[in-house]
Design a protein that fits this description.
Two copies of one chain form a homodimer. By secondary structure, chain A is α/β, with parallel strands linked by helices. Helix content of chain A is 44%, strand content 16%. Chain A contains 23 helices and 15 strands. In chain A, the strands form three sheets. A nine-stranded mixed beta sheet of chain A has the order 1-2-13-12-7-6-3-4-5, with helices on both faces. Chain A has a four-stranded parallel beta sheet with strand order 9-10-8-11, sandwiched between helices. In chain A, helix 8 packs across helix 9 and helix 11 packs across helix 18. The longest helix of chain A has 22 residues. Chain A is globular. Chain A starts with a helix and ends with a helix. Chains A and B meet through helix 1, helix 8, helix 19 and helix 22 of A and helix 1, helix 8, helix 19 and helix 22 of B.
């Protein structure tokens, strides 16, 4: 297999680790824990894995561990560093006992159910050290939720004599990991389950988990590109770049990129929702900045738009809900022939407010909402090109203002979507180190017989040797939420906290950044070598949250 | 102004230079030159700047130079390294005589005509060393072609006592630089003109110019992203990524990215033209690879598409030409009300072949060809989203094959366009060194009284201290070509040479790369520090052309 010079160089990188993980480890148990809310219900649902203590890993004495086999699963969307979690887990297991074996279940949780696996040998692991992607064993989106799946998992593990499973995933996958842990405890199956916090979206974090892995690298890739576009905008002086950023619901990615690159505008979905803003409010806000800059002779700029925006606009959410109700399996609608008839049909059936909004949307978007639907008849929200929607609406408003003489600039816009480019980038030093440490931590939690825990590493804004590795009971992060009409125990998703330091800093600066005087920062590409301040920095979000 | 850690680190980078430029320089004149073709006409048009000798810069004795002022212009689209040309020019001028001054004409050639300038002091220069973008003085697309413009230029130069102008631009801008040099010689204006080879497109190269600056950095940015998408494709295993790459006409960028990342498919416009391929031929070629990979269970991949493709498909070019003739200022057409009527009108008036092709195009594209037109009534070819056109046509064909049972895979496609992200990236070490050397070279050509020359640096695949700096008469690269109906002297544009080593290597490998066995390379982001093989490599195109 041919490799780039950087691939070759990176394969020799030795991730930095907390002191405790550099030798043998002892376990220090802290206080018993409670779930963040709904303690009674959660306790009832997780009698065996509720209330466990927080665990810290500290330097310990060398000791012998019996042989064991472990399985690992990658769940959900890719995030840079997944391969290093597996490499850390592998090295950790070999440190415990050179005869330990690591099996990778293939293509996500379905690999466990189907007993589809690959033994991960050092040859394979070495191929993937410090690389991006999840291709070592593949990932998948099958949800581990049902008892028959759990039982199939026992079969697969028994066949391979597997003592523990590590599930690398986001909030939902870790919720499921905990349900699985609880089930295996109840059944006395002899299989531990350990989770690892993955997602580029950054929405799996809380008092214990400082950040999910992959967020750092993905944001740095997007910020590189945003910085490049800003330099281009500032040079050509004729384009407004509307940049949509991946991140299914929370706006952490957009916010972090804004902190890194200081664009003229960044929309934060959580703020839109809190202020009950309409699409028109957002358009007005953008138009104001464009007009102000045009008055200063600057007909260019950058605007960051979080992918999930549409669903955070209350009126849009109501419209989409109405459309979903109205059109799913609606034979009357489906029997209509022309697009025009379909639109008329929809307009007549919507509530007054939604009908108005629907009418005001650009044609292409209205079409997407009504005609392009998923197999269940639902609007495919993630495929709506919000950046184009906003360009169209902004252009329309500016044209009116031009006619009225209140806008004298020139408006030319370019649209971008950055997402897939960042999910599988070569992990930054931060993510490479963090993930490798998570993997090693998981191996110790397994060795110590823990289950229903998530591996964590804290103190991440200090140099890696000062990081603190440990484990927290997954139940600790749970509350009860309505999912598909039923109350379920789930890990609380962390949206952007409008009272948190990262947002507050952004809010205090955005008028300055919108202003005539260019405040652009050009982060440049991720560096793996060179001065530490260039190649080892964590995200701005983390630094602000830790006030460093 | 806030800066990223990489910006701060890069501002201290000292570009590497050829030995000759490290001290004082002597000029070595080579053989008299001839234009590449049409020698008689070119000689007649350039009596003062034709037939000059090639110049090499070699180490020389320290000597004193009289004070002088120089002007510099950035012309056309941004390319990484432009700021370093200016920094090299500035440092070179200061080396010649500390009292020398450098003026930047603002916002491109129009700055010269309008006498709009900025004195570039060391404070300003230091802000922009090793940075991307053209924002130090801005760029513009005004063409310096007419006598009144040249005369205004004399006025502006006289006012600032400017002895020489350096024009940093692509093939057209350098052609114009030569016309300007000739005019100023004829007029005895006492103003020299020196060109510098800029363009990310890579189409300004020949026996003397090994590569234009910016091509290296831009291709590395795009290849980083392509590599990331490939890792994602190989992990998620469910998407075909259709990636359109900037590059107005030549396919050098697509080819270089293919050499760096080894995608499953890369279309080269020059080959499409040479083989007189139709749009359907291209679709068939893509479909074949998709079907073969699906048969091997691989329903994912990457396809690179050069931006200029459409105009290299002979039948499409004819259709576009017919549409341009038919619709420009056509009142009958403009008076038609509905889109349907317009389409019918067009279909009836086209030749049989074009009408057929027009009918077969996806609706959205046909619409773009007929309805969205520039102020002159011309089709806006560069705005046609070729990647979406191909996705639509490929999907249609695969659906038919699925019905026939000859295709059993799943096809889901994502589209990307990479362009603006690369034009203003922080220059790679290669471009930073190359550009700085070009700037220093230009200062020596000016000091030695040369005009109508382009600054060049050769031997670029060796370490920078072995590079050879010099100058070539711009007339040497010229031939006569028809432009807007008139024969004009122009620098030959370098398209991808189907007999050249880069294409031949690609052609010898592409079946392997298309194949089931993944050949993806993951170049990763540009590195500025670390091992030389990671951070100082030139493009694969250049290495293959030089057979290293």
């Amino acid at each position: 297999m041919q490799k780039s010079p950087l691939q070759i160089a990176r394969s020799n990188y030795q991730p930095k680790m907390p002191v405790a993980l550099q030798g043998f480890v002892a376990i220090k148990e802290g206080e018993k824990t409670q779930s963040v809310a709904d303690q009674e219900e959660i306790k009832k649902l997780f009698p065996n894995t509720y209330g466990l203590p927080v665990i810290s890993l500290v330097p310990g004495e060398k000791k012998a561990f019996p042989e064991m086999n472990v399985g690992v699963i990658l769940s959900g969307g890719q995030a840079p560093g997944g391969h290093n979690v597996i490499a850390g887990l592998f090295d950790g297991l070999k440190q415990l006992n050179p005869n330990n074996k690591l099996y990778g279940f293939l293509n996500g949780p379905s690999g466990l159910i189907e007993g589809n696996y690959l033994e991960l040998t050092s040859n394979i692991i070495d191929e993937y050290r410090n690389t991006g992607g999840f291709d070592i064993i593949g990932s998948g989106r099958t949800k581990l939720e049902e008892t028959w799946q759990f039982d199939k998992g026992i079969e697969a593990c028994k066949k391979l004599n597997i003592k523990a499973i590590v599930i690398i995933g986001g909030d939902d996958s870790n919720t499921n990991a905990c349900v699985l842990a609880e089930y295996y405890q109840q059944k006395n199956a002899g299989i531990q389950v350990i989770g690892c916090p993955k997602t580029i979206d950054g929405d799996l974090k809380n008092a214990q988990i400082e950040t999910s892995f992959g967020f750092d690298t993905a944001c740095k890739v997007y910020s590189e590109l945003i910085g490049n576009l800003q330099r281009d905008a500032n040079s050509a002086k004729k384009y407004w770049h509307f940049i949509r950023l991946m991140g299914r619901s929370a706006s952490h990615i957009a916010l972090e990129c804004a902190l890194q690159a200081q664009p003229n505008i960044c929309i934060i979905s959580e703020e839109v929702e809190a202020k009950e803003m309409t699409l028109n409010d957002i358009v007005d806000q953008i138009v104001k900045v464009i007009v102000d800059r045009a008055d200063a002779g600057l007909n260019f700029g950058t605007i960051l738009i979080p992918e999930g925006l549409i669903e955070f606009i209350p009126a849009m959410r109501r419209l989409i809900a109405e459309l979903n109700d109205l059109l799913a399996n609606n034979e009357e609608f489906n029997s209509l022939e022309s697009d025009d008839e379909k639109r008329q049909y929809v307009k007549a059936k919507l509530t007054h407010e939604s009908s108005q909004l629907y009418r005001d949307l650009p044609k292409g978007i209205a079409r997407q909402l009504t005609l392009d639907r998923d197999p269940h008849g639902n609007v495919m929200v993630s495929q709506i090109e919000t950046e184009k929607l906003l360009i169209e609406m902004v252009a329309k408003k500016l044209a009116i203002m031009k006619g009225e003489g209140t806008y004298k600039g020139k408006f030319a816009a370019l649209n971008h979507f950055f997402g897939y480019e960042g999910r599988c980038a070569i992990p930054s030093n931060f993510d490479a180190d963090y993930c490798y440490s998570l993997g090693r931590t998981a191996s110790w939690l397994i060795a110590e017989g823990k289950t229903g825990y998530m591996a964590i590493v804290q103190n991440l804004t200090t140099p890696a040797n000062e990081w603190q590795a440990g484990g927290i009971p997954i139940t600790m992060m749970m509350n009860m939420e309505k999912r598909a009409g039923k109350m379920k125990p789930v890990i609380q998703k962390a949206l952007v906290d409008l009272e948190g330091e990262p947002f507050k800093y952004f809010a205090s600066k955005r008028e300055l950044w919108a202003d005539a005087h260019t405040s652009y920062i050009y982060p440049g590409p991720i560096q793996y070598y060179g001065p530490s301040e260039v190649c080892d920095q964590p995200t701005r979000t983390l630094l602000l949250e830790k006030k460093r």
